[in-house]
Amino acid sequence: MERETWKGAPPARPLSPLPLNPVPLARPLNPVLLARPLDWLPRPSRPRAVAALALVLTVALAALLPIPAAAQERPRAPARLVAAVGDCLTAELGDTLTEPAYSEELAEGWRIVLALRGQPGMAATSMQSPPPPEDTVAAVDIYQILPGEPTPDFVDNMSAFLMVNARDHQRYVVEVAGYFMLRVRSAASGCVERSTGGLFVFQPVP
Fold it and tell me: Whole-structure pTM over 0.85, yes or no?
């Protein structure tokens, strides 16, 4: 048998395909999603992100702004000061009272209760501010207002007045309620001043 010979390069033989070993997917792909265009995929919501950023900036700016005086917590006059004023009023008014003055705590301050003794004979005189004809009650209310807070409208320098500390600008509103007597008004102003060592003095309001 004659042996077949080739002239030139031997003919190319077809390559056998390499075996493929694909890695199995943990979850099969959804053919519906594969058929949709790529721009269908969800993107971050820009309006929602802008709204969240605006909220963060608003909260940060609100924290930097000063708190209005009306919204701040009102300080309270010390209890020992109120007790000292009550003792002073008891000594100052003397037999005008049927019992020693005592204090009560209010929502924003203190009240010193004065049990006034009735004096029918004195009430019939022409005194400008006579004592009551029968036993009754008066009160001296004391509460503190903030330095930047406006003066209450009811402050009239008589039945309600300001006592101011010139050193640290603390202010007390003192109001005489119940039966009004000039003697009680004068004693209230003097007792606050003496009980604070002269730091708080009467300041008239124009």
Answer: no
- Strand 200-203's sheet: what is its strand order? 102-105, 110-116, 136-145, 171-178, 160-165, 200-203
Residue 173: closest CA among 146, 138, 137: 146
Distance between CA atoms of residues 104 and 114, nearest Å: 11
Q: What distances in angstroms separate CA 82 from CA 79, 141, 143, 173, one per listed residue?
A: 5, 10, 10, 13
DSSP annotation of 97: B
In the chain, the amino acid numbered 202 is F
C-alpha closest to that of 140 among 94, 90, 95? 90
- pLDDT tens, residue by residue, 59-118: 555 555 554 444 457 788 999 999 999 999 999 999 999 999 999 999 889 999 999 999
The C-alpha atoms of residue 147 and residue 155 are separated, in whole angstroms, by: 16
